[in-house]
Design brief:
Blueprint: H1 10-18, E1 21-26, E2 30-34, H2 46-58, E3 66-74, E4 84-93, E5 97-106, E6 109-119, H3 151-159, E7 162-167, E8 181-188, H4 196-207, H5 213-218, E9 229-239, E10 249-259, E11 262-271, E12 276-287
Antiparallel strand pairs: 1-2, 2-4, 3-6, 3-9, 4-5, 5-6, 7-8, 8-10, 9-12, 10-11, 11-12
Helix pairs in contact: 2-4
Organism: Microbacterium album
Region (Disordered): 122-146
GO molecular function, one term: fatty acyl-CoA hydrolase activity
Length: 292
């Protein structure tokens, strides 16, 4: 089997899907249109919809009111071959906070529903949990390019707009040390400019990649397991401080529980100099053949 032609600019593709169209139509909600980037399985990547939801909600607010939280549910699988419609309901606007409900539709049915909260940059108490000490990204090997011959692996390793380097080894084909935790260095593969809202939307995109892996690691299940099925059920992000999505971030992740075909994962994203940028939580559906 020969390698498929690599995507020359996967970050450019990400920026294209985050550049929402505006129809000019508005009843009780603001309406936007969007496209999707290709995925090997034909299903929309959840992080894409998260990023698009941030952009759509932000379009209804002044630029100095930034997102501090997003809570969303993935309701149906999305089809990358069909256009998306996003609606934004302006639930509340206060002196310091604004809330927006965002829904994404295909064929008239919602595939995602979430609520985002935005806040002005207000003074207040300030503390954070320190970043753990790990090897620098330059000290870690990149993924083996030979693994990119399978379409699924090609996206994860080569054609994804996100670059990832696992601390302690990846789990694409095997899990050497089963444990319900991991850490990865991650960033977009090239700079995307200085638009702060774009970086927050891109960070939302990044948070959905690798967050499922602590659940798999806990049970020694690699991504290459035949017949494995996963799907994101819900996702929450809390933005604490601004950070650039195109610079190295440490994504520290753990899974406190798995049961009933579901697994919960939590994560913290740190800038390279140790600033806690965001906290993430996600529950997934997980089906592994031969296991309860």
């Amino acid at each position: 089997m020969t390698d498929a032609a690599p995507n020359p600019d996967p970050v450019g593709v990400l920026l294209d899907v985050l550049a929402l169209g505006e129809t000019g139509a508005r009843t009780s909600e603001d309406i936007f249109t969007a496209a999707s980037h290709a995925m090997p399985n034909g299903r929309i990547f959840g992080g894409q919809v998260l990023g698009q939801a941030v952009v759509a909600a932000a379009r209804t607010l002044p630029p100095d009111r930034a997102p501090h939280s997003l809570h969303g549910y993935f309701l149906r699988p999305g089809d990358v071959g069909k256009p998306l419609t996003l609606s934004v309901d302006r639930i509340h606007d206060g002196r310091s906070f604004s809330r927006r409900r965002i829904q994404a539709f295909q064929d008239g049915e919602p595939i995602f529903s979430g609520i985002a909260s935005f806040q002005d940059d207000d003074p207040g108490l300030d503390h954070q949990v320190p970043m753990p000490e790990v090897p620098a990204p330059e000290e870690l090997p990149g993924p083996d390019p030979r693994m990119g011959r399978r379409p699924e692996a090609a996206f994860a390793i080569r054609d994804n707009p996100i670059e990832v380097r696992h601390v302690g080894g990846h789990i694409y084909v095997a899990v050497d040390d089963p444990a319900p935790r991991q850490a990865v260095w991650t960033r977009l593969r090239r700079p995307i400019g200085d638009d702060a809202m774009l970086h927050r939307a891109a960070l939302a995109y990044v948070t959905d990649f690798t967050i499922q892996e602590p659940v798999l690691r806990a049970h020694g299940v690699p991504w290459a397991t035949p017949g494995i099925r996963t799907a994101s059920l819900d996702h929450a992000i809390w933005w604490h401080r601004f950070g650039r999505a195109d610079e190295w971030m440490l994504y520290v992740q753990e899974s406190p529980s798995a049961r009933g075909g579901r697994g919960l994962a939590q994560g913290q994203l740190y800038s390279r100099d140790g600033v806690l940028l965001a906290t993430v939580a996600q529950e997934i559906m997980l089906r592994v053949p031969g296991q309860g």
